[in-house]
Design goal:
homodimer, 529 residues, alpha/beta, 6-stranded parallel beta sheet, 21 helices, globular, disordered N terminus
Chain lengths: 529, 529
């Protein structure tokens, strides 16, 4: 065995890492959310040589993947993540799970040991493919420099599958450190396209809707744009029906003169009551199911015979809605909804979730993007969003908590002119609080409202429904967060983010006015019951 | 389709969840590091009914798994983790990767949707098995209440395999919510046993060592106890050889009158220089390999013909060392090593990594446990630990960063009378800083020294070796953490942990004196160059 061989002469010229970056750039990538380690340093050097990709460092991988998700949702472009081996990638899985549910197009870059080193099972060796598959449309291990452009093309193709989602490229250090061909195949930019809905689907829907009965138009995915909501409203109006949206949209446009869109309820009994006996037109939305499986309640909440499957997620729901509305006699452009009046709640009163939302309805600037996580503020906001100026809302699509703050980071980088507002429950904010550092570092215009009720409210709601006493010591130990109460103002300060604690409506109003004009982040700890 | 069925009458009597806890308790589990969600509430209720297991809540799953690892290393017992579905589990993977490398025996409990709900691909559905396999000796999905005791027995058996490691039990809500047999099979407590090394192995070693040549005794795993180190020292003395330990021990006993144990170096060139032409007796240690694969350097750093394979990890290395030492004429009990004098560094001088270590050498109390993460303080400590009072050190076994603080949590719960000291680099501390909250909540006697150099020092070291300029903007952006500098005192305050910033040796000395007498946690931000 040759224990020590001569170190190779430094390679001049183009390496695999350079070809990888060229190919990604050509495919459309412009930003890289990174938390690199030793195996990624070859790519870090190449990023420095290249200089075209914006590199955003985070202190934790879940921030990188959640930021990539937010960036993809707001921009529709394909961001990169750069993560360190299996364990580093694993820290980013939760937010990639949400990204998969949102159909966000992302390419993950994961460094791995040199191929010849893997057999030695070094400390950081792990089965990266097994970890990556559950959150990737495709996992590709780069095997040789000559094939890198092909591999990248395949990754973009995977993210362009109908429902979007991430593709994962694993790059062994020896492959990206090796000389690469100067004339690597070109990748070519392939824009994302929704799949068209055929005429037969429209005809079937027309036939189904010609039967007597109530109708609900359930919007989801690509239908949740201004055009989709107007087309859906036209269809609902033509049928005398109601307009609903899926419970957890990736991104939805709301407010201004757009019609109100009712949100699908959460608990199965509430969904069943909400749906009544109506037939449900699925326009970009999946059929209504129960979020969790509850004994005594079916998973599927609307039977097959009442479902009108117009457009699946990943299909062009807007075009399908327009076509269907025109055939059932819908007005192409229904009258704009008049704005309801909004006014600030009483200044001296203690904050409640509803009063926080009322104040934000007053102050939210035009074209803001809201990153919403948790039901404490999320529920009341989505019941009232039609009363705000035109804005977009991102919600937690996959239920993996710790999405809200990173998604706000990504949104701010995707749309630097917009104001980003994070409406964030305190429990879920803890999973990726390191986002605050990246907000400060990048000077992002994010205004965060932490709903500080110091408990896992959703778990208490579920336990109440199951008639489990909340004051049992062990139950309380596992659901209450009040010993000690987290001081979010101190945490924000720790990361260089200005912060204010608010207990009354007046305090919140002043803090929000300050935050919404700052050229950087502000965190407001809203103390709630 | 029956959309709404009658809710079942509440079940009285014993449920699957109760049988699960009974079986786990019988097998030896006494503590549960938990971050539950809705699918785990059946188990939370059962934990409340049972009342025998200590439940420790953390704000992030990586804290749960790292704390379980620390608990297992210090106690040798089998702790539980309770985590929420695939994404919640994913957040705990990084520290389970380290636990696998440490051979820590852990049982993970992961809730899943009801079996009949999985086909509907609800938002939180994911391939938990694919996520869990890379960090589990065995993954078992509970299929029916009658088999739960068998499943638990199998999980304990998997953790008892020679090298230890975690077993993972996935429990669908309908299985643990269903009535369970009162007379479930009993699990029985099976203590962990190392595999004995046969006489033939001792004989081979004697033969190999009878040849002329230098000898290194390389200790690892089970050999890193007081008995193992003394036996290793006796063997080395008899052969006129040197005593080394593996570079990243799970837990090692050091200091007091124990002989100094040199640590295996990190970079391949340093290891090769350190090993020279010696033959290397592997006693509980794996053979020396390179941590990463570097072009021009072999992975294996000592050729096969110079390896004397006495005891593999998971084998009884102490007994093998004692037997071998006696056959080559080693003294059974070499003279205790005399303690070297230690004294505080100059009070007014600015802190350096070495001065931090010197002060801790003076103050570290007897039988403390050090949780060590990062090379800034870890390197100098392990070079000098023989000069401290008797203590134990846990290191980062798998290279997944974010281990140090959670391991300190687990150590403190495993040994409440001991003082726990976390020597922690600032970059890696960020991955699981939520540990601070659990330390405050549980009043743990943990004294943390954060090595605040505001950069990824290890990456800068690697880049320097590769001759990549550190001041390139993108390189600096991805390796420097000084914009903004994290204020650890503020972060600690946010979690209810007292904290002090130290810039001189005198300040550190005073802070440490205060921290080591507190009946709870203290964080010291040590500002380093």
């Amino acid at each position: 065995m040759n224990v020590q061989s001569e170190a190779k002469a430094p390679v001049s010229g183009r390496l695999g890492a350079d070809l990888l970056l060229d190919s990604l750039y050509e495919g459309g990538a412009r930003i890289c959310f990174a938390n690199p380690g030793t195996t990624e340093l070859g790519l870090v050097s190449a990023l420095a040589r290249d200089g075209r990709l914006r590199c955003v460092l985070s202190l934790f991988e879940g921030v990188c993947t959640g930021a990539a998700d937010g960036y993809a949702r707001v921009s529709g472009q394909v961001p990169l993540t750069l993560l360190h081996l299996g364990p580093g990638f694993a820290n980013g899985i939760a937010n990639l799970h949400n990204a998969r549910r949102a159909g966000s197009r992302i390419i993950n870059l994961i460094g791995d040991h040199a191929t010849w080193h893997l057999a030695y099972d070094a400390p950081l060796t792990s089965d990266i493919v097994s970890l990556a598959q559950p959150v990737s449309r495709q996992v590709i291990s780069l095997a040789k420099p000559d094939a890198i452009a092909d591999d990248v093309r395949q990754a973009f193709a995977a993210t362009n599958l109908a429902e979007g989602g991430a593709a994962t490229l694993i790059f062994p250090t020896d492959v990206v450190d090796a000389p690469a061909p100067d004339n690597g195949n070109t990748v070519g930019f392939v824009p994302y396209q929704l799949t068209s809905v055929g005429d037969d689907r429209i005809k079937s829907a027309v036939a189904a809707l010609s039967e007597p009965g109530e109708t609900i138009v359930l919007l989801g995915g690509s239908a949740l744009t201004e055009a989709g909501i107007r087309a859906g409203a036209a269809l609902a109006a033509a049928l005398g029906g109601r307009l609903l949206m899926e419970p957890y949209p990736g991104i939805v446009t709301l407010g201004g003169d757009l019609p109100k869109v009712e949100r699908q309820a959460y608990f199965p009994d509430d969904v069943i009551a909400q749906m009544g006996d109506a037939r449900v037109v699925l326009a970009g939305a999946r059929m209504p199911i129960s979020y969790f499986g509850y004994e005594g309640w079916s998973s599927q909440l609307v039977p097959d015979e009442r479902l009108v499957r117009l457009a699946a997620p990943g299909e062009d729901a807007v075009a399908a809605l327009v076509a269907l509305a025109s055939q059932v006699g819908g007005e192409p452009a229904p009258a704009p909804a008049p704005m309801e009046a909004v006014c600030s709640p009483e200044a001296d009163a203690a904050l409640t979730p509803v009063s926080v939302v009322e104040e934000l309805l007053v102050q939210l600037p035009q074209d803001a993007v809201i990153s919403l996580e948790g039901s404490t503020l999320g529920g009341p906001w989505l019941r009232n969003a039609h009363r705000a100026k035109r804005h977009r809302v991102m919600t937690n699509t996959g239920g993996a908590i710790g999405q809200g703050l990173p998604c706000a980071v990504g949104a701010a980088l995707a749309q630097p002119d917009a104001r980003i507002v994070a409406l964030q429950s305190d429990g879920s904010a803890q999973y990726t609080l390191q986002s605050l550092w990246t907000m400060a570092r990048e000077g992002l215009k994010v205004t965060i409202i932490i709903a500080a009720n110091h408990r896992y409210a959703i778990l208490q709601t579920e336990l109440n429904r199951a008639e489990v006493p909340l004051d049992d010591k062990i139950v309380a130990d596992l659901t209450k967060l009040d010993s000690p109460k987290v001081d979010w103002v101190a945490l924000a300060k720790g990361y260089g983010v200005e912060a204010i604690r608010a207990t009354t409506n007046g305090e919140l109003s002043a803090a929000l006015r300050h935050g919404l004009t700052l050229d950087g982040p502000l965190l407001i700890q809203a103390e709630l019951p």
